[in-house]
Structures are given as structure tokens and as C-alpha cells.
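Table S2 (text version). Query chain:
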Amino acid sequence: PAIQLGYSGPLAAPERRLDVAPLTTGLAALVLQRELEKIELFDADQSERQRRRARIEMDRARSAAEEAARQARIKAQQAAEEAARQARQRAEEEAARRARMEAEPPPLAPDPQPLNISPPTARP
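Corresponding C-alpha cell output:
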């Protein structure tokens, strides 16, 4: 920014003339530049906030997915343990049943009654 100072007229009574147009133009350009910088800073700040929000949401979604996967693994592990426990229990019950059957003597068959093949009239 600059100011032009000029004198005109006789030396005994000079007339002073100021041209402040370049000064006002320069000051307006400075103000405009500052406003543009403020707008750029605001836009950059807004973009950074959006990026942070997106990152936070992405982290939350990833954490939720990891937790769901962890819960599914725990549930599957518990189901496998329960199935193994039930299989062991069935095997133990089967072994106990076999041991009881081997320990008990087989039941004796009752003496069969002789078949009566006499004619119906001769029956007592």
C-alpha cells in the first residue's frame, strides 16, 4: 500500500494533494486475503472433523465386529465343549451298561413244558 503526496501551485501557497486510492486498494486486498485464510482454515478444520468422525465410526464398527466375532468364537467353543461332555457322558454310560451286563449272569431260560400233542378229546 502506498500514498501519493503531491504539491501544485505557486511556491508561496502550495496546494497539497493526497492520492489514497492505492492505500485503500492495498488495505482491501489485505483484508480479503485474511478473510480467505480464515475460510481456508475453517474448511480445513471442518474436513478434519469429518475425517475424525468417520475414523471414530469406523473404529466403533470394527470394535463391534471384533466383539461379535469373539462372542461367536466363545459360543462355538462352549458348544464344542458341551458336545464333548455329552459324548463322554454317553460313553461312560455305555461302558457302565456293558460292565453291568458282563457282571450279571445271563438269565436262565425256564424249563420248557413239554408240548401236549394229544387229541383234544383225550385231554384231562
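Notes on Table S2: Residues 4 and 19 are 5 Å apart (CA to CA). The two ends are 149 Å apart (CA to CA).
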